[in-house]
Amino acid sequence: MSHLTKSQLSKLEHSLLEEKEGLEQHFSENENENEGTDSLRVSTGELTAVDNHPADVGTETFERSRDMAIDENLDNQLDQVNQALERIKSGEYGVCVTCGSDIPFERLEAIPYTAYCIDHTPERTVSDDRPVEEEVMTLPPKGAGEHRQQNAGRFDDADAWHTVEEFGNSDSPAMAAKRDAKDYNSLTLDDE
User: InterPro entries this protein is in (predicted)?
Assistant: First the structure.
């Protein structure tokens, strides 16, 4: 017997169906777009990438990989929503698949497709699909860049903040003194 009332279960099922509809709509709207398998020339509509700045190609590559990651995540979420709807039909919804304890309504309300209680939620994993460039990249030599800005006579963001902070702001005493001095000088010039 489920610990959820009929109204709670109905509300959660409605939420799951809305989420499923939204996810399916996302995939139906984007089904005409390529799945990252087309060449860069085909996906951008350019005849060649030679005349483009390398950053343009990099941006396009980044956008394609980001879209693929988003679609992978949404596809996983759609699978979880469908599994939750199946658990509702079978009467197993709202129970942790690991330990069998009831999942609190508040948790189900926040994440209606969850199949786990808080204690048994699996670790999130990062996709194994990594850019091929990572295979050939090497770490910089040890110590590279350490104290580079100090030795070059430049200052970093924190130094810049402290430098700007010395000038104060419109509410600080330093600015008020400058404002008063300016007002005093303008008065004495007008009097002459």
Answer: DnaK_N, YteA, Znf_DskA_TraR
Domain check: are 153 and 95 in the same one? no
Q: What is the DSSP letter of 141?
A: P
Give every CB contact of residue 127 below 8 A, 6+ residues apart in sequence.
69, 72
Q: Are residues 95 and 12 in the same domain?
A: yes
Any domain includes 161: yes
In a domain, 171, yes or no: yes
Query: In terms of DSSP H, where are the helices of 91-137?
Result: 105-110, 133-136
Same domain, 62 and 16: yes
Contacts of 32-41 with CB under 8 Å at 24 or more apart are 33/67, 35/68, 35/71, 36/64, 36/65, 36/67, 36/68
The model's pTM: 0.56
* Integer angstrom CA distances of residue 173 from 118, 140, 167: 52, 47, 10
Q: Which domain holds residue 16?
A: 6-120
Residue pair 95/114 in contact by the 8 Å Cβ criterion: no
Per-position pLDDT tens, the chain of length 192: 468 889 999 999 999 999 999 999 988 887 755 454 555 555 666 656 566 666 667 777 788 888 888 888 899 999 999 999 999 999 899 999 999 899 999 999 999 999 999 888 888 776 677 767 667 767 666 666 666 555 555 556 666 777 777 776 666 666 666 666 666 666 555 545
Q: Can you tell me the distance from the alpha carbon of 43 to that of 34, in angstroms, rounded to the nearest whole number? A: 7
